[in-house]
Design a protein that fits this description.
The protein is mostly helical and about 450 residues long. It has 3 domains: about 190 residues, Growth Hormone, Chain: A; about 55 residues, no CATH class; about 210 residues, Growth Hormone, Chain: A, CATH 1.20.1250.20. It is about 80% helix and about 0% strand. Helix 4 crosses helix 5, helix 10 packs parallel to helix 18 and helix 12 packs antiparallel against helix 19. The longest helix has about 35 residues. The chain starts with a helix and ends with a helix. About 50% of the residues are buried. GO terms for molecular function: transmembrane transporter activity. Keywords: Cell membrane, Membrane, Transmembrane, Transmembrane helix, Transport. This is Drug resistance transporter, EmrB/QacA subfamily.
């Protein structure tokens, strides 16, 4: 059906642009006169913009109509892509990535809403399965496609390729997307949204300012304090607001509390890997952009291959043991990159990257499932939106934290081309330890044995 293809292509565009820039960062840095070790803001801006708008996506669609919002989202995404390609400075590129992220944030939630309201319940699962497949393909080909475009053309084309796809998407939206009507939009919690959005932005900018924005220590401290205060103020506000963005009643469910906190802290480490690995390969090991992109293929292929293993393990061992053990495994594999050397055999590096993809895939599946598995039907939509927001926020903050740690070690040992490898080694070790710390959060899950696995996995 054309509608499913339309929503699937939108999801593909969103996920592709989350990964395609990673292998192009050194080339972009050279073109813009920046250090490749200070380009994390290009990735952070996109993830943070998506995290900001996701909580409001449902209300926006109900208020203005899904078809109109979807058309606007594609238009904003295409315009942001063009502005990215035309950006002569890093600050303008970051601003354009924010616009791109705002458009991308609405593509999947609004598209999913249209599918939900168009297809009967017995066909919805099959329809969403079709829609999400391209979302898995985007991260699979993104790094390799980005490296190929940088070598054969220029980094500008990683954004310009969105233009023809986006224009076709706009025409398809006008022709194939139905004018579905939902319930009238209720009153929007503008005060709560402002507090939550400001808190996310301030915390992310505070982390990014440690290395990438040249802020002084006082400015970083102020941003972190105001960010934490704003997030705390939101939850106080939500406790008394009649229609908060996210009801505090959500947190009455222990598995959701633990799952959200575990997602946040585990992804701070694992979310930095797509940023750190291509930089390591190009800056310290002499790989070309295409070679670095090709080296990310084992990560994606092993990740997709490990998906069926996740539920099999959970059925037999339970969520608690799987998540505690696998979180430690993710951290150890990340820290193992501290031992990488240009002299290591190619096959060993591929095996290491494939193992990283497999354990991360298992981690994401288990974390996401345990977070939502016990929610009542009337809380499922809100819980899913909150989880999506936390995921995008953690990805952005993870890249910002990795950039800050890498910048600190680079300054400590010197930033010359031949001296960056020790800084990368120390950064991987720190991010691995940070990830391992999240195992203590998952250890707070209620013990569940093999007999409990199937019911919880469903």
């Amino acid at each position: 059906m054309p509608l499913l293809w339309l929503v699937a292509v939108g999801f593909f565009m969103q996920t592709l642009d989350a990964t395609i820039v990673n292998t192009a960062l050194p080339a972009m840095a050279q073109s813009l006169g920046e250090s490749p070790l200070r380009m994390q803001s290009v990735v952070v801006a996109y993830s943070l913009a998506m995290a900001m708008l996701i909580p409001a996506s449902g209300w926006i669609a109900d208020r203005f109509g899904p078809r109109r919002v979807y058309l606007g989202a594609i238009s904003a995404f295409v315009l942001g892509s063009v502005l990215c390609a035309l950006s002569p400075r890093l600050d303008l590129l970051v601003a354009a990535r924010v616009l791109q992220g705002l458009g991308g944030a609405l593509l999947l939630p609004v598209g999913r809403l249209v599918v939900l309201r168009t297809f009967p319940r017995d066909q919805f699962l099959h329809a969403m399965g079709f829609v999400t497949i391209p979302g898995l393909v985007g991260p699979l080909i993104g790094p390799t496609l980005g490296g190929w475009l940088v070598e054969t053309a220029s980094w500008h084309w990683i954004f310009l390729i969105n233009v023809p796809v986006g224009l076709a998407g706009c025409m398809a939206t006008l022709r194939f997307m139905p004018q579905v009507q939902g319930p009238p939009a209720g009153r929007f919690d503008a005060a709560g949204y402002g507090l939550l959005a400001f808190g996310m932005v301030a915390l992310s900018l505070g982390l990014d300012g440690l290395s990438g924005l040249g802020m002084g220590q006082a400015a970083v401290l102020l941003l972190m304090v105001f960010g934490l205060a704003s997030v705390a103020a939101y939850w106080l506000h939500a406790a008394r607001a009649p229609q908060p963005l996210f009801s505090p009643h959500l947190f009455a469910q222990p598995s959701l509390r633990i799952g959200l906190l575990g997602n946040l802290f585990a992804r701070l480490g694992s979310g930095s890997m797509p940023f750190l690995v291509p930089l390591l390969l190009q800056v310290s090991m002499g790989y070309s952009p295409l070679q670095a992109g090709m080296m990310m293929l084992p990560v994606a292929v092993a990740g997709m291959g490990a998906k069926p293993l996740a539920m099999w393990l959970i059925d037999r061992m339970g969520y608690r043991r799987v998540l505690v053990g696998n979180t430690l495994a993710v951290g150890v594999v990340m820290a193992s990159f501290a031992l990488t050397s240009p002299d290591h055999p190619w096959a060993l590096r591929v095996a290491q990257l494939a193992l990283s993809g497999a354990v991360n895939s298992l981690q994401f599946t288990a974390m996401n499932t345990v977070t939502l598995k016990d929610l009542a039907p009337d809380m499922a939509s809100s819980g899913n939106s909150l989880l999506s927001m936390v995921q995008m926020l953690a990805m952005g903050m993870g890249v910002a934290a990795a950039g800050a740690v890498l910048g600190a070690f680079t300054a400590l040992w010197g930033g010359a081309a031949g001296q960056t490898l020790p800084a990368f080694h120390a950064t991987f070790a720190c991010m691995g330890l940070m990830t391992m710390a999240a195992a203590g959060i998952f250890a707070q899950l209620a013990p569940d044995g093999p007999a409990d696995g199937p019911s919880q996995a469903g």
